[in-house]
């Protein structure tokens, strides 16, 4: 515990410019939801950007969002009768955790389909195609008149796109429910109606959506973790939503990942399932909906990343959940927020980076013409920790004020926030660091898993994953007895 504590007065602690950026960003985020300033005296942020090769403050974004989630857990622990404790987050460690690096049985999976990536169009513009799911790949290929399936080459796609205008193909793909984005500059995004809608929204919203009596959180002894006996239903896939659930599991929650047997996953599920129960429920069937309803009746948090309106159509939208389980904290993730012409548009981190100006700005900083991605999917990871932060703030409000609550986060809002953290001079000259000293190895249901240990450290209630990562359907759809 001693190596985590810095008992010097705050004005004597070394503060790098990047550390000050993280501290200021955390203070602003913390104050936006009316949490007590006293908590901020118990957080230690170390390190400075650049920690990864980028002209953006991706390290500060990783550190700030993770520190907010961890400090909220410590605040809940204090609400449950525990003493205030120190929370420490190192910037490089946080950024490395956000790179989604892991190995299974000594092998690092490649998450990208060969068709995924950026392409030049006939008008000189660029588009990014996300093809990691077969139905997205084949849908985009069909729109281009290319053969579907795994054998299609990038050269075939390039020839087809040479006959398209970038924004035209983006729109046609969106109309077909596919996931494609055209590259824009920041200036172009700022003029776009969706960019203006995002700029008018806060980073996250926490809204009371129903009445319910407060459920005070039980008190626990010193050996418990902050979220002990908090039940979380995790209906998310890919990265952002699963990172939220993984963080809540690290802080002691019983997190149940609910997968459909009809929907595909990507290899990241191996890493993001650490600490979770993993069940199957087909919500297109009555049995699946009954199973989820039964789980919801004793849950505290419901996290979902379905396309906008998708769960409401199945009877599990926020108002439905508040009716089934008064007092629920419902957390929603979207790509582009809740207002504007793209509010119902699907998207992933890489696509939002491209659409909102980051790939163009990073390319300019690198002196290249082709779009340049950020060094990790920071929109996903920061959004995941912001979701965990919002969920815990809402839990605290429910315990003290009552009510049912809806937390909303979007990748595009997180992008707008990241942009506001400023640029890092010379950041692209930073060398990509290795993972020495940051990895832990443990058995899992997928094989031997080596992954980055959690970067947020607690002086009194260390974060850990008590359950091994497990494949979908490993556990029955019932809550465990604690």
From TrEMBL:
Residues 469-482 have a biased composition (Pro residues). Keywords: Transferase. One of its GO terms (molecular function) is transferase activity. Residues 462-482 are annotated as: Disordered. The keyword Transmembrane helix does not apply. It holds the Pfam family CoA_transf_3. This is CoA transferase. It comes from Achromobacter seleniivolatilans. The lineage of its organism: Bacteria, Pseudomonadati, Pseudomonadota, Betaproteobacteria, Burkholderiales.
């Amino acid at each position: 515990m001693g190596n985590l504590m810095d008992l010097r007065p705050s004005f004597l602690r070394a503060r790098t410019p990047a550390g000050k950026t993280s501290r200021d960003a955390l203070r602003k985020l913390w104050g936006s939801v009316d949490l007590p300033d006293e908590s901020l005296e118990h957080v230690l942020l170390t390190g400075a950007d650049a920690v990864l090769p980028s002209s953006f403050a991706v390290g500060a974004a990783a550190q700030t969002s993770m520190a907010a989630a961890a400090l909220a857990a410590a605040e809940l622990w204090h609400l449950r009768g525990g003493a205030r404790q120190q929370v420490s987050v190192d910037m490089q460690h946080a950024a490395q955790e956000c790179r989604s690096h892991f190995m299974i049985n000594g092998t690092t999976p490649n998450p990208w389909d060969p068709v995924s990536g950026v392409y030049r169009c006939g008008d000189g513009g660029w588009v990014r195609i996300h093809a990691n799911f077969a139905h997205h790949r084949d849908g985009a290929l069909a729109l281009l008149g290319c053969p579907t399936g795994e054998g299609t080459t990038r050269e075939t796609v390039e020839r087809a796109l040479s006959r398209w205008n970038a924004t035209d193909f983006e729109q046609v793909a969106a109309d077909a429910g596919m996931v494609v984005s055209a590259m824009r500059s920041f200036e172009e995004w700022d003029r776009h109606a969706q960019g203006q809608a995002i700029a008018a929204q806060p980073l996250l919203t926490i809204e009371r959506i129903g009445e319910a009596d407060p459920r005070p959180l039980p008190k626990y002894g010193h050996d418990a973790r902050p979220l002990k006996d908090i039940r979380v239903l995790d209906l998310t896939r890919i990265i952002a939503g699963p990172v939220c659930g993984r963080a809540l599991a690290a802080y002691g929650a019983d997190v149940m990942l609910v997968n459909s047997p009809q929907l595909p996953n990507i290899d990241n599920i191996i890493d993001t399932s650490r600490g979770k129960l993993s069940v199957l429920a087909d919500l297109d069937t009555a049995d699946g909906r009954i199973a989820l309803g039964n789980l919801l009746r004793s849950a505290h948090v419901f996290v979902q990343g379905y396309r906008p309106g998708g769960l409401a159509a199945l009877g599990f939208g926020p108002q439905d959940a508040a009716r089934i389980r008064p007092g629920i904290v419902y957390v929603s993730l979207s790509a582009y927020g809740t207002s504007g012409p793209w509010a119902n548009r699907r998207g992933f981190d890489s696509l939002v980076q491209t659409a909102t100006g980051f790939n163009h700005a990073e390319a300019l900083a690198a002196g290249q013409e082709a779009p340049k991605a950020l060094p990790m999917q920071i929109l996903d990871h920061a959004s995941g920790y912001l979701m965990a932060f919002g969920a815990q703030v809402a839990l605290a409000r429910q315990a003290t004020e009552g009510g049912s609550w809806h937390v909303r986060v979007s990748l595009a809002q997180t992008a707008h926030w990241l942009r506001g953290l400023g640029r890092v001079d010379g950041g692209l000259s930073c060398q990509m660091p290795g993972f020495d000293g940051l990895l832990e190895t443990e058995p899992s249901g997928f094989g031997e898993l080596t992954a980055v240990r959690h970067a947020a450290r607690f002086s009194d209630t260390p974060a850990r994953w008590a359950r091994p990562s497990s494949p979908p359907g490993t556990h029955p759809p019932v809550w465990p007895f604690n």
